[in-house]
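Below: protein 1.
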Amino acid sequence: MPPIIALDFATTDQATAFVRQFPAGERLFVKVGMELFYAGGPGIIRELQAIRPLDIFLDLKLHDIPHTVEQAAAQIGRLGVAMTTVHAAGGSRMIAAAKAGLERGAAEAGVRPPKLLAITHLTSSSQAMLASELSITVPLPEAVSHLAAVAQAAGADGVVASAQEVPLIRAVTRPDFLIVTPGIRPQNAAVGDQVRVVTPGQAARIGASAIVVGRPITQAEKPLAAYRQINQEWSQS
């Protein structure tokens, strides 16, 4: 799986202009998050799909009562995206409801259902924040691996987690369970608001299934060159 480029843009025009910079023969996997989806709605998915063949990770982090999440997931399932997310903290019933909704919506639209990923703890979270604000006193890696096991049992296809937690997640999940890792920064790059970060090569060696990279590519002076450098490090490590 190639690096997933986070299209963290404010407008659909910015996002589509960015995608058009990439040659047609370049395999492309992009992430549409809340900012862009709230700006463009479902139409941004169709616009991106119309530009060229690509895979889309629709990262909306659903978190609500199971019925509401199932209905929302059914709408996502109709869009033909490759992956989407829920918060593992919503619990097993909510995760299972999301899976059911994705499969129902995809079947109605005649498309393949998206892979369902559960968010464990955000890469901006720290041990101190979890303890002081959420009253989670177990070590952060243990909290992440526990949520991964819950998500797998509820039918999720994988999780989103820091690459630092990959070995612990691998120890409690099946071999084909996806671990998608944000918080990826090339060597010497600014970390921004991320706390638990690794390089593309480190993520590959640890055993991540996929990496998500945003600003080091989207804000680079030469985005295509930056993407290819990161892809090379990721694929050859």
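Below: protein 2.
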Amino acid sequence: MINFASCLTEYAVQVTETSCSAYSNSSCISTNLTPSIQNAVTCIYRIVLSTQKQILVTLTWCKNSLFQGLNVFFGIDPSSSIKLNTNSRLFRRLKGSKSIEFDSCKIELFWDLSTARYLTGPEPVDGYYVFITVDSELGLILGDKVEEATRKKMKTSCNKMAKFSLITRQEHYSGNTLYSTKVRFCETGSSHEISIRCSGEDERFKYPALSVSIDKKMVTHVKRLQWNFRGNQTIFLDGLLIDLMWDVHDWFYNPGSGCGVFMFRTRTGFDNSRLWLEEKMAHKDEDKVEFSLMIYACKKII
């Protein structure tokens, strides 16, 4: 991917306070457009064991006309994956467990999707559980039905609980140029609705414009998007600096196979002089967990 910082526009290094009254009545939701369909969600979690050993876990929920399921793999090696098909009549396993060996550890995955409830996307909203144990420690825990299942597991073989955190979330969409999702940027923060819309800003010339809103309050509006297809803006929300970056180059110049990318990421500290892409990982506070959200949007601009 081309470096976002390589093409700065008039929108670079702006800080927007989402509660600003200037945006109080602005929204990028249009009742005339149907939101795009979310067809994949990928979340990367970090598990920190009591020995301080760290394991990355990648979960991908996906849905299309032929397949719906969950894919789990560990570290950066997809060959360690566990795939669950939840809609095949012959091969689906809505409840069960599976164990693998990874990095000298015994990892067990437990799941129950038999009563999972879905909305329009591939990720269940309730009625399910997914949890992972690493050796004798209870690691990743997801779902609203996990309490009873993990309590039974803790009584039998697990006597420790590891720490886990969500570090990256990627969402894939297809359909119209209207995208909506909900996200929490920190564990103590509240859930926020993010909406992204691309539309014509001039009825006569139909120049496309991009608008992004959080909780129905517009935080950025990019005019003449075809010439400002890359940029960045900083948002102040929940006491955090959050970098918003967009790259929709391929919407215009590679519409057959390209996609637009929107990125939200929390930044450590309040240094406005650098983009988060330029921050050095070695100087980060190890106890402070950062979060990033990536949205891949496939759409041909007409």
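Helices lie at 146-156, 249-253.
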